[in-house]
Amino acid sequence: MAQAIVIPHSLQTITAGSLVIAFLISLYRLQKDRNMFAIAIDFWIPINIVVNIFYIVVGLNNHAYYGFIPIVIISSIIAPILWIWVSRAIYFYFCEKEIIGGFFWLGILGAMSVALFFFIFLNFGAYAVGFWIDKDNANVLVSGGQVAATMAIYGSFIFVAAAFSSSPEIIRNVMLRISIILVVFVVALTSGRAALMVSIVIGGFTGILVKMLNQNPKLKSLNIYTLIGYSVIAIVATLLLIVIDVYSADVDLGITLSNLSEKLFEGGGDLRVWQYDALLQGIKDTDGLGAGHGVGVTLIRSTEYPWRYELTPLATILRVGIIGFLLLMIPYVYYIFEFIKRMATTGVDTFDTFMFSGFVAFLAASFTNPYPESFIFQFSLYIPIVLFEMKYRRRPRKKRTTAAKQRKQFV
């Protein structure tokens, strides 16, 4: 988790190895508690395998680009299995307080990683930041009032930003609560990514909506203390932005926010609009049946991965067809449906809202970036689903770890 959030794509081999080790630990846990296996998402795993293998064959038949097979197998078949099982281990070995604390400190370390990247790049150049990103792709823009950088960490921060924006009260210490919100705002502003800024809005909106509709007596409505808390955080964040704007000669927040809003209202820029048209035409040409993995359209977005596009849902429909897309979406739709159903009946708690908001924001970001196709970022999809299902599944738990027995609700 630390590598996936703080330094994603920097040590991919080590990250993959750590994920496999965590997977083996979860299998060891299965030896003690067979009940770990009995969750609904397990029944989706063979469906996912069959759909992806079938469309790998279709792609080969349709002259797919060379080298796509190992990437698809790792990101679309192996990675979901690993993350699903690692999520079980997280549930059994850590209580909710520890999970939230982990996300908090990883968010702080991630912000420090961003600051260090800016400092090294601006003082020593692109060759000095090879640890974070390939020197040919490294770039930092701090001029003309604009701030932006090319860092993979902004992908993992989408989940963190939305989660903490939706439920800042989950951090009981007021100073720590304000600090993580300020960190989220600063990282988002320095990213130049509209998706990251929007994730803060999505998180805040989701949190407020859940509090309004939730049937949990402790979270059923927005009380005066919650509103005061949101107001204080908003005021402090605004003051920080004003200080940055006034005392930084190279940063003009007006220009930065203007550029971000233009990207947002223009559909992510001309390139994404062109991708939308090309992908839609490709779907029509295949009658919605799927062209196969590794197959692209006339517009090439990446020379390294010519079958990959930023509009992930449309790109997925192009590859696996409408039916295949619906089958692959089963766990995500199921999670959203179960969350809404529980919220409207017995109610959800703050931890559930935290996880759900991060999940929704990451899912929304898939319309602008191919983050779900990277095995590193898939924790944003599977950890919320598995934790929610393990927490509320009907079958009783047979054995619990000490941490699990002391599980607390943050409400």
Description:
- This protein has 411 residues and is mainly α.
- 66% of the residues lie in helices and 2% in strands.
- It contains 16 helices and two strands.
- A two-stranded antiparallel ribbon has the order 1-2.
- Helix 6 packs antiparallel against helix 14, helix 11 crosses helix 12 and helix 13 crosses helix 15.
- The radius of gyration is 21 Å and the shape is globular.
- The C terminus is likely disordered.
Descriptive keywords:
411 residues; 2% strand; mainly alpha; two-stranded antiparallel ribbon; single chain
Compile the SSE list and pairings.
Elements: H1 2-6, H2 12-32, H3 44-61, H4 68-93, H5 96-124, E1 140-143, E2 146-149, H6 153-166, H7 174-191, H8 194-213, H9 224-247, H10 253-265, H11 270-285, H12 312-328, H13 330-344, H14 350-365, H15 379-392, H16 402-405
Antiparallel strand pairs: 1-2
Summarize the structure in short:
The protein is an all-alpha fold. It has helices spanning 2-6, 12-32, 44-61, 68-93, 96-124, 153-166, 174-191, 194-213, 224-247, 253-265, 270-285, 312-328, 330-344, 350-365, 379-392, 402-405, and strands at residues 140-143, 146-149. The chain has 16 helices and two strands.
